[in-house]
Design brief:
Structural class of chain B: mainly alpha
Oligomer: heterodimer
Radius of gyration of chain A: 19 Å
Strand order of the largest sheet of chain A: 1-2
Largest sheet of chain A: 2 strands, antiparallel
Largest sheet of chain B: none
Distance between the termini of chain A: 44 Å
Helix content of chain B: 55-70%
Number of helices of chain A: 10
Number of domains of chain B: 3
Distance between the termini of chain B: 60 Å
Structural class of chain A: mainly alpha
Shape of chain B: globular
Strand content of chain B: under 5%
Shape of chain A: globular
């Protein structure tokens, strides 16, 4: 007996692959560009977003029958911002260096389109467990793309991975140079584009006319 | 000729549908039409019954580029000789220049060509001579000291990201050669800018004319600074100054321009637009020269024309028929704005002494928009006059 039914699994997979928030819906791009220079910051950002998205979806889903529809955005925002402030404070307390590097981008999770989008599209009309899975799936889909981008950017841009040197010194001695473009925001744009290209080639997606 | 024709006919059988090499038909097709004029003419409207196709047009551009290529080789060699303090010898210049330029050109062609063939086979379209132009343009706008692996990386970016992603030949928004250079410029700034990359002698630094003016004392005269650094107008016009390979010689570019205009391959509207934009804008900038301004403000238009890559860019890159505007009025606007932007970036933005590459790429992006408004206004005018 498994804890997740097939339907539940599909909800998670939907966010991870078929409806991936970044490559399919193209949401949450700004943080994907800003925090992916290093794997470490991207990882922390992913954890923070996963925490916020999964919990906000659950809480909003629990409250969904009490929220008047006219002020639902404000209620959603107050739930989300409470969670974001919580995550931000924890980071400041225990991982001050990373928190400083992430600067405003943890706080900006509040405005991340993925969080608001899932609250509106899923949590407002589905039971808590389903909403939780949906939030988790979307957050993991976001994280997967972010980790791909961050890994490529750190290896090609700085020659390291999680701070350890990956590109052998021999290459540098023979004239290899780190690609400066990868450290700049456009590098993330090109990588994101390439990831979307690959995913659409694999899944056979066609633009609807 | 007969011999080649027969050999190709024999080979053609191997590439037919169902035969073992059918997958590589684009390769054969490229060879075939490269060697011989294709027997087919256009069958669909508009019925232009002429065998001049993209290949012939592109070959004209390659021919127009030969003066620049020879100057690139000669000047690269000459700058090396001067830097090493060797006595002048024509043969030495050509030989050491060849040794420096030829590998860059070959790597650009090989790396870019591989991508081109790969995409042609996967997507089942023809390989285009357009690439002969792209590869050469790209090689000619690189500094002579560029490491060869970076040459390959840049052209790969130019061909794949700037051209093939958008659908291949004829669909690209940006000029692939310039996009490749822009990639290198931002990815490997140490090998693409600064004073150490323009002469192919280890550890030798020399500022290009543009860098000299950019670094000249505030309020001073730009021309005085150039003359003091040993750059005369004549040297820059003829091309005996350090710089990217093929861009130094204005006269070689003008020879190419003459050929392109006679064969009607390049649009005279774009080129005139570029020159008019640059002259007007630099005259306008002259009004602002003063004691607390950069020396660049005091540079008159004819010096702007012979410096840096302006002549090369406006003649060979801005006129790219795919990435430039397509309407007549649009071409004027497109050209003039390139000229204006070149001066603006050179003078007002101290981070980049040269602005030709960025100006052309920027206007490439705007070219479809310009066309859109030109066509719209045309429709409006027609509707008004004929309700």
């Amino acid at each position: 007996m498994s804890i997740l039914t097939r339907k539940d699994k599909r909800i998670v997979k939907d966010g991870l692959w078929d409806n991936n928030p970044i490559t399919f819906q193209v949401l949450g791009i700004c943080s994907a560009l800003a925090v992916t220079v290093q794997v470490k910051t991207a990882l922390v950002m992913c954890l923070a977003l996963t925490f916020v998205l999964a919990l906000s979806n659950t809480i909003i889903s629990l409250l969904r029958n009490f929220i008047p529809s006219k002020i639902r955005i404000i209620v959603q925002l107050s739930v989300i911002s409470t969670l974001v402030i919580l995550a931000d404070q924890v980071l400041k307390a225990y991982m001050f260096d990373v928190s400083k590097q992430l600067s405003v981008f943890v706080g900006l999770i509040i405005t991340n389109c993925i969080v608001m989008g899932r609250a509106e599209a899923c949590a407002m009309r589905n039971p808590p467990f389903k909403s939780f899975l949906d939030g988790l799936g979307n957050a993991l889909g976001y994280s997967a793309v972010l980790m791909c981008v961050a890994t490529a950017r750190e290896i090609f841009g700085s020659g390291t991975l999680l701070g350890f040197q990956i590109v052998p010194q021999v290459l540098y001695d023979h004239g290899y140079v780190d690609c400066g473009l990868m450290v700049l925001a456009p590098g993330a744009f090109f990588l994101l584009g390439a990831i979307i290209w690959i995913q659409r080639a694999v899944s056979g997606y066609k633009e609807a006319n | 000729m007969k011999f080649i024709e027969e050999k190709l006919k024999q080979a053609a059988k191997l590439f037919e549908e169902g035969k073992p090499l059918a997958k590589f038909f684009p390769l054969f097709e490229a060879m075939d039409t490269f060697a011989l004029t294709p027997g087919k003419t256009a069958s669909k409207a508009p019925h232009v019954r002429d065998v001049i196709d993209l290949k012939r047009v592109m070959i004209f551009v390659v021919i127009a580029l030969t003066p620049c290529l020879w100057m690139a080789i000669y000047n690269t060699g000459m700058q090396m000789q001067i830097a090493q303090g060797l006595p002048f010898s024509f043969r030495g210049c050509v030989l050491s220049g060849l040794k420096q330029v030829l590998p860059i050109l070959l790597v650009a062609y090989t790396a870019g060509g591989l991508w081109e063939v790969l995409f042609a086979i996967v997507r089942k379209h023809e390989i285009n001579e357009g690439f002969l132009v792209t590869g050469m343009l790209y090689a000619l706008i690189l500094p002579p000291t560029i490491p060869l692996w970076q040459v390959a990386a840049g052209i790969s970016f130019g061909v794949v990201i700037a051209k093939e992603i958008f659908g291949g030949t004829g669909y690209n928004v940006l000029n692939p050669a310039l996009a490749g250079r822009a990639f290198l410029f931002f990815a490997y700034p140490a090998q693409m800018s600064g004073d150490a990359v323009w002469v192919a002698v280890d550890g030798f630094t020399k500022a290009t004319p543009l860098a000299v003016v950019a670094a000249a004392q505030k309020g001073g005269s730009a021309i005085a600074a150039l003359i003091q650094a040993g750059y005369s107008f004549k040297d820059m016009f003829l091309g005996f100054v350090p710089g990217s390979l093929g861009e130094t010689s204005t006269i070689a570019c003008l020879l190419g321009l003459a050929f392109l205009l006679v064969t009607r391959v390049a649009s005279w509207r774009v080129v005139s637009g570029c020159f008019i934009g640059l002259i007007t804008m630099s005259l306008f900038m002259l009004l602002f020269k003063g004691n607390d301004r950069l020396a660049f403000f005091s540079l008159p238009p004819h010096w702007h024309i012979v410096m840096g890559g302006f002549a090369f860019g406006s003649i060979f890159m801005a006129t790219d028929p795919v990435s430039s505007s397509a309407t007549k009025t649009g071409r004027w606007i497109y050209g003039i704005l390139i000229g204006v932007l070149v001066v603006l970036i050179r003078i007002v933005n101290p981070a980049y002494p040269e602005g030709v590459m960025l100006a052309i790429l920027f206007m490439n992006v705007f070219a479809p928009l310009i066309d859109h408004f030109v066509v719209e206004s045309h429709i409006k005018k027609r509707l008004k006059s004929n309700p």
